[in-house]
Amino acid sequence: MLKNIATNKALGFTENQWGQLIEANGLLLMWFIEWNQANDAVNKDREKPLSIMDFFKQKYNMSAGGDPWPMGGKVSLDGKYVSDGDDDLEPYFLINSDDGVGYINPYAFVALPKKSGGHSIVRMD
Fold it and tell me: Which of 12, 49, 63, 78 could form a cystine bridge with 42, CB 3.0-4.6 A?
């Protein structure tokens, strides 16, 4: 994986299982990479970049024809998606960005970091 994307080693998946997860989440991973690269390039030119949420909305709209579905849970300090009445979800992937760490969890729950702190959590399946 790229240096700004890490797999959650605590899950103990095999190399083959990780390969399947990378393939299944490929668009989301690619969008994180594209946003990081676009954000770096724009900052060098001193233009105002899109927020990560706006970037993902734009990409998801082109791919799925609608906006990502907002989720009501939160991200715990260890990166898990936490929602009342549901089991906590361990993230598959942790992605570093200028805005903080983003997470890709099971069920295509994506935690997009906010510059002001915290995350916008959406479902992007």
Answer: 49
Residues 6+ apart with CB under 8 A from 7: 1, 13, 18, 21, 92, 93, 94
* pLDDT number for residue 11: 96
Q: Which residues pair with residue 109 across a beta bridge?
A: 105, 123
For the stretch 30-73, pLDDT in tens is: 999 998 888 766 555 556 678 999 999 999 999 999 999 999 99
Predicted local distance difference test score (pLDDT) of residue 76? 96
* CA 20 – CA 120 distance, rounded (Å): 26
Q: pTM for this one?
A: 0.90
Give the whole-angstrom CA distance, residue 33 versus residue 31: 5
Structure tokens given for 104: 């890709």
- Taking the C-alpha atoms of residue 82 and residue 89, their distance in angstroms, rounded to an integer, is 7
Phi and psi for 81 in degrees, rounded to 5? Answer: -85, 125
Which single residue is written with the structure tokens 């900052």?
43
